[in-house]
Automatic annotation (TrEMBL):
<dbReference type="GO" id="GO:0006508">
    <property type="term" value="P:proteolysis"/>
</dbReference>
<keyword id="KW-0378">Hydrolase</keyword>
<feature type="transmembrane region" description="Helical">
    <location>
        <begin position="377"/>
        <end position="399"/>
    </location>
</feature>
<comment type="similarity">
    <text>Belongs to the peptidase M50B family.</text>
</comment>
<keyword id="KW-1133">Transmembrane helix</keyword>
<dbReference type="InterPro" id="IPR008915">
    <property type="entry name" value="Peptidase_M50"/>
</dbReference>
<dbReference type="InterPro" id="IPR004387">
    <property type="entry name" value="Pept_M50_Zn"/>
</dbReference>
<keyword id="KW-0645">Protease</keyword>
<dbReference type="InterPro" id="IPR036034">
    <property type="entry name" value="PDZ_sf"/>
</dbReference>
<keyword id="KW-0479">Metal-binding</keyword>
<feature type="transmembrane region" description="Helical">
    <location>
        <begin position="426"/>
        <end position="445"/>
    </location>
</feature>
<keyword id="KW-0482">Metalloprotease</keyword>
<feature type="transmembrane region" description="Helical">
    <location>
        <begin position="7"/>
        <end position="29"/>
    </location>
</feature>
<keyword id="KW-0812">Transmembrane</keyword>
<dbReference type="InterPro" id="IPR001478">
    <property type="entry name" value="PDZ"/>
</dbReference>
<protein>
    <recommendedName>
        <fullName>Zinc metalloprotease</fullName>
        <ecNumber>3.4.24.-</ecNumber>
    </recommendedName>
</protein>
<keyword id="KW-0472">Membrane</keyword>
Length: 452
């Protein structure tokens, strides 16, 4: 029950942040253009909280945190007193209306820039992308990649960490052509380049590990199979296992390290296994009923143990410190790259190169928000930045009912010198509403399917 409450709370907070910023953009620019704002609401439906400010604006929070709106004075919606007509939205110039409509997405991009600026100024830290092993016959092997190499760039894009490698590979999802890797053999800084051919790489795939699909297993230090912590009421605790116990076998088969233990436990959902352990140097054998858990639709075994903390070698950790100017430049570059990536992903989805099943709705957003928050505030706000960019790009699409659709209508009016006929506008809004509703329903369907 607590998990459900936590997930709903994180959904409300996460969407609340990006939606509030979006609507504040409309609100702020509308006020600067002399438009009278009647209501500023975060969320739809019945208001769970509202307050009338001295300037006449009603500020409210709706019961459904899946959007928001700014209600402005408009003669098309209700009669307007003669002395207030100049403050009506519909009486503003097309350029001013375009500015008001575009302000929401622009503020979402600004939010992303601010988040990345702060994160970059605080310094980036991550694991160096050193290759542990290469799968025979894989793209990585065809490119000549080898164990112990460090990937320093992909297609000329620097890859300081595994996260950067993953983003560079995301950009090539569904692509054909060549992919170029630049690598070094640490501690040498001599750069070697090699290429491999792609042919609609992972086109239509969903929920894939791009690094492993490339044929690369990242380097990891050997983690001893020693219990560092126990999950409350987990299978291990019920069986009497203790912190400090070292696993040496499962049903007589030797366990060499923690990863070997994890793989064996995953395959043992719902089974009773005999675990050989060392406790204070003395061998013991314990029968454990492995619990079954559903993760991303797959049933896996769960023992309820955590490894003792293992530090990566100092030379495997990458730090990048930037000054204010460098951080701002990097934030602008990262936000711009995300905008391009989002548009490119939409294009590939239309072309069938990326599976539409990758579309996510509120359930997935809530799960990712919760998971990133548990990893730390830096991860959470990086997700906020990504979500904010996605919302900004989506809202700029020239679909009526979205900001981009409004901008399209106002631009046509500006060029033609007269408004788009009301009949055409209404028809466009109906089509746009149908498309957006279908998109939302499909995204929600994907969410539910992932739960199953």
């Amino acid at each position: 029950m607590f998990d459900i409450i936590q997930t709903v709370f994180m959904l409300a907070v996460t969407l609340g942040i990006v939606v509030t910023v979006n609507e504040f953009g409309h609100f702020w620019v509308a006020r600067r253009c002399g438009v009278k704002v009647l209501k500023f609401s975060v969320g739809f439906g019945r208001s769970v909280w509202s307050r009338q400010a001295q300037d006449g604006v009603e500020y409210a929070i709706g019961v459904l945190p899946l959007g928001g709106y700014v209600k402005m004075l408009d003669e098309r919606e209700a009669p307007v007193d003669a002395d207030l007509k100049a403050q009506a939205f519909n009486n503003k110039s097309p350029a001013q209306r375009i500015a008001i409509a575009a302000a929401g997405p622009m503020f979402n991009f600004i939010l992303a820039i601010i988040v990345y600026f702060v994160l970059f100024l605080a310094g980036e830290r991550g694991l160096a992308p050193v290759i542990g092993s290469v799968e025979p016959g894989s793209i990585a092997e065809m490119a000549g990649l080898e164990s112990d190499q460090e990937i320093v760039a992909i297609d000329g894009q620097k890859t300081l960490t595994w996260q950067a490698v993953n983003f560079a590979l995301l950009e090539r999802l569904g692509d054909s052509g060549t992919i170029e890797f630049s690598v070094i053999y640490p501690p040498s800084q001599q750069v070697y380049s090699s290429q491999a051919n792609l042919d609609r790489w992972l086109a239509g795939a969903e929920d894939v590990d791009l690094i492993r699909e490339l044929g690369i297993e990242p380097y990891r230090p050997v983690i001893p199979a020693i219990i560092g912590g126990l999950a409350d009421d987990g299978a291990a605790m019920k069986a009497g296992l203790q912190v400090g116990d070292e696993f040496v076998s499962i049903d007589g088969s030797t366990i060499s390290d923690w990863m070997a233990l994890v793989e064996e436990v995953k395959r043992s959902a719902g089974q009773e296994r005999w675990l050989g352990i060392l406790r204070d140097g003395l061998p013991l054998t314990v029968a454990v009923q492995i619990e079954a858990a559903v993760v991303d639709g797959d049933t896996i075994g769960r023992l309820g143990v955590y490894p003792a903390a293992v530090e990566f070698p100092v030379d495997m950790v990458r730090y990048l410190e930037r000054g204010p100017i460098e951080s701002l430049a990097a934030a602008l570059e990262r936000t711009g790259a995300l905008v391009v990536f989002t548009l490119d992903s939409m294009k590939k989805m239309v072309e069938g190169l990326i599976s539409p099943k990758n579309l996510s709705g509120p359930i997935t957003i809530a799960k990712v928000a919760t998971a990133t928050a548990e990893r730390g505030w830096a991860s959470y706000f990086e997700f906020i930045a990504l979500l904010s960019v996605s919302l900004g790009v989506l809202n700029l699409l020239p679909i009526p009912v979205l900001d981009g659709g409004h901008i399209l209508y106002y631009a046509i009016e500006w060029i033609a010198g007269r408004p788009v006929p009301e009949r055409v506008q209404i028809m466009g809004y109906q089509i746009g509403l149908f498309l957006v509703t279908c998109l939302m329903v499909f995204a929600l369907y994907n969410d539910v399917a992932r739960l199953g």
